[in-house]
Amino acid sequence: MRWQRGGAEADRLARLRATWLGERKWSKSEFPSGRAAAPVLSRRLAESMGEGLAAAGSLVPVEIDAAAKGDEYFLFVVEAVVDCLDLRRSSKPKKIDGEVKKAVFRPEALPSHLPAFRLPQFPGAVQWNGWAADLLADLTGDQIERRLIWSEDPAARPHPDPWGI
To answer: Longest Cα pair distance anywhere in the chain, in angstroms?
Structure first.
């Protein structure tokens, strides 16, 4: 999203227009997010995540063309940008978008109290803290895949391509 890269208040969204793709009879996802930069949450998810979301950003209403009753979604605009990447031990951010394939965080700088944050080196992606990713997975069942990016636990194995499909 342009606002995340440039930070200009004029580029910030007040609402987002969207259209459902696919067959109406298909089940609807509660986390229909196609990009790491723009997590979209159903009303149920947003309410279940609680006030913690407000600590990291804001919810922008998503207006869905020809929406059915109950189709209420929000774009979670993560405003918290935290410089917690260990630049010496992490892979070099890609020039085109800042993607960091192998992230190593500085534990003392990691905002573990926030559900999510963005990195100044990779502002186009939302980094979810483990507890928030676990909560999202618990609330959505098999609708989302958690991919470990980093852990202080040496036995934990980060995903080899956390941003790939």
So the answer is: 50
